[in-house]
Design goal:
The structure holds 2 protein chains of 2 kinds.
Chain A (H helix, E strand, L loop, with lengths): L2 H13 L5 H12 L2 H5 L1 H7 L6 H26 L3 H8 L4 H34 L6 H9 L13 H20 L1 H28 L4 H9 L9 H14 L6 H6 L8 H34 L10 H15 L3 H34 L4 H20 L4 H31 L3 H11 L6 H28 L7 H22 L24 H6 L3 H5 L10
Helix pairs in contact in A: 2-10, 2-14, 2-16, 4-14, 5-6, 5-12, 5-14, 5-19, 5-20, 6-7, 7-9, 7-16, 7-17, 7-18, 7-21, 9-10, 9-16, 9-17, 10-14, 10-16, 11-14, 12-20, 14-15, 15-16, 16-17, 18-20, 18-21
Chain B lengths: L2 H28 L2 H11 L1
Classes of the chains: A mainly alpha, B mainly alpha.
């Protein structure tokens, strides 16, 4: 075994790795498919041209989403590190971008878990339709006990308990490691999610009025294609849905064997994410069609997204539909699964960065990251003010956290470091189809322009009308100031020294995907065993 | 459902789900490089 190959194998055992490409693809799908696929896409499509939305959506997927996804894969796979380590290996001064992404992931994890806790509660509420005759009053009043817009310390036990359960599950999964934790969860639960949602769609299609719902979703409004806002909505939906630009795909790609086809894998992940969105659109609108018919109103009168769709509209549907309990368990169970596989990917970005930067074991890093995140999450979101804080943080972190860091890092990599040719060369060693000038143009021009327009429209809207009509102190404290603090924190963390012996300039030794497999036969093990251990991380480095 | 809605639904399904099927087929055909290297070694 050559010394560089041995060092690479040793390093991968330390960091952890997925046992196969299939596990990686399922984990990446698990990350990409989240709550937004189920409760955001159907509404965005309906509001932006219905059936005609397919056109800008596909354009955004092919010209921006998948090229950006491949950029993330190339950065992580070539540099074999967490987001900060990968950026540092690209150029030392770029490390702060990686920590900015880590800070965003930390923040997302804090509030994302709360929504999972609600969905977990509602999975059980579905059994006896605990929300009664008025799901809206039940959700905000009885369940969340949301009062006036204020930050309080009044704990809501009904939220605290499921939230603690969610964090306990996350702690166990993360402690088990990359393969036995994230890999196994993805391997089991992604097929379960697809199956459960497919059954839900069939159930929804059998409801009276489902055709009217699908009619509302798919009837094309071709005039919408002339509106810039519709194209921005398509780029925004693709961008937010694919989990790109904030460290997740960089981290996951660093756990994949160096000789795998990352381009082909990216195409599968990108189309899987959109395939699930389409399935979700059909299921959600079929159910909304039933709700409209039962209420004697037009579908447009019952259409909603996000929290309103999940925790108000769906409970109404579940109460009125034949076999409603089954629909409820499938719908909220799907939300929980889709959410938890996304939550663990977000947390892994932080754990991986901590492990790369400091000399810690998997368990130590897991405890050091998950416990404080969980405590903060429980303190902020199990109180009567949780819903307001969550809504504001979610909006600002998405629009001005993820979007800005993604845009900046894309521009830095493409134009500042001019790294696209070497990243394309890396993917092309084993990837098919091969990436050429087209990918470079899409990644350096088309995708950044698309994201910049989405960002510009978001800023314009927020300056014209304060988000959600919340009071200024809430928008400032949990919105603007928070998203400004994230890059500051990121570049401060980048000033901490790396552990002794960390390779920083370029890809680490032994990570060349084109290197021969000579050591494998000599060592008497298969190449797969060595280059992708599939084992979970060893102890201290 | 109106004819235009049905057409757009079928078009969306064909392109997105068809795209997924094509991507999976292409990846499987191209195969893992590790696996191909193993096969070459066995052949030798």
């Amino acid at each position: 075994m050559s010394s560089t190959a041995g060092a690479a194998a040793q390093q991968e055992r330390r960091r952890g790795a997925f046992s196969s490409r299939r596990v990686f693809i399922l984990a990446a799908i698990g990350s990409a498919v989240g709550l937004g696929n189920i409760w955001r896409f159907p509404y965005v499509a309906y509001e932006n041209g219905g059936g005609a939305f397919v056109v800008p959506y596909l354009v955004a997927l092919l010209t921006s989403g998948i090229p950006f996804l491949l950029l993330d894969y190339a950065i992580g796979h070539r540099h074999r590190g967490s987001a900060p380590l990968s950026f540092a290996r690209l150029r030392r001064g770029a490390e702060g971008l990686g920590w900015w992404q880590v800070a965003i992931c930390f923040l997302i994890a804090v509030y994302y878990a709360a929504v999972l806790a609600w969905a977990l509660s509602y999975t059980f509420f579905s059994l006896d339709q605990a929300w009664g005759a008025d799901p809206n009053a039940f959700f905000f009043g009885e369940y969340l006990q949301a009062g006036d817009v204020a930050v309080t310390a009044d704990v809501v036990p009904g939220v605290l308990v499921p939230l603690a359960v969610v964090w306990l599950a996350v702690l166990v999964v993360m402690a088990l490691g990359v393969q036995r934790g994230i890999g196994v969860v993805s391997l089991v639960f992604i097929p379960v999610l697809v199956l459960a949602f497919a059954v839900l769609v069939v159930q929804a299609l059998l409801l009276p009025g489902s055709g009217a719902g699908l009619d509302a979703l798919f009837t094309p409004d071709w005039a919408a294609l002339a509106e810039p806002g519709v194209w921005a909505a398509a780029f925004g939906q693709i961008f937010f849905s694919l989990s790109i630009g904030f460290g997740i795909m960089i981290t996951y790609a660093s756990y994949v064997g160096r000789r795998e086809d990352m381009t082909g894998s990216g195409l599968v992940v990108g189309f899987s994410n959109s395939s699930f969105e389409l399935l979700a659109g059909i299921g959600v609108f079929a159910a909304l069609g039933f709700m409209a018919q039962a209420g004697g109103v037009a579908v447009g009168d019952v259409v909603d997204d996000g929290i309103g769709l999940a925790f108000v509209a769906f409970p109404t549907i579940i109460s009125e539909a034949p076999g409603g309990a089954l629909i409820g368990i499938l719908f909220f169970g799907s939300l929980v699964i889709a959410g938890i596989t996304s939550l663990i990917s977000v947390i892994e970005v932080v754990i991986s960065a901590v492990r790369d930067k400091l000399d810690t074991s998997r368990l130590t890093a897991t405890l050091a990251v998950v416990v404080p995140t969980a405590v903060l999450s429980l303190v902020l979101f199990s109180t009567t003010s949780g819903i307001y804080v969550l809504d504001v943080v979610d909006h600002f972190v998405n629009q001005y956290g993820i979007l800005v860091v993604a845009l900046l890092s894309m521009l830095v990599v493409a134009w500042g470091l001019r790294a696209l040719p070497r990243l394309a060369d890396h993917l092309n060693v084993h990837g098919r189809p091969r990436l050429g000038g087209g990918w470079r143009v899409l990644t350096s021009v088309v995708a950044p322009v698309g994201l910049a327009i989405v960002l510009f429209l978001a800023v314009r809207d927020d300056l014209e009308t304060p988000y959600g009509d919340y009071p200024t102190w809430l928008l400032l404290g949990f919105g603007w100031l928070l998203v400004l603090a994230l890059p500051l924190l990121g570049f401060l963390l980048a000033r901490l020294p790396w552990r002794a012996g960390t390779h920083l300039d370029g890809p680490p030794p032994g990570s060349d995907p084109g290197a021969p497999l000579d050591g494998a036969a000599v060592a008497g093990t298969t190449a797969r065993d060595r280059s992708v251990s599939g084992y979970d991380e060893g102890g201290r480095r | 459902m109106s004819a235009s809605a049905i057409v757009m639904m079928v078009v969306a399904m064909l392109i997105i789900w068809g795209g997924l099927a094509l991507a999976v087929t292409s990846l499987v055909r191209h195969g893992a490089v590790e696996q191909r290297a193993e096969n070459v070694r066995r052949d030798l």
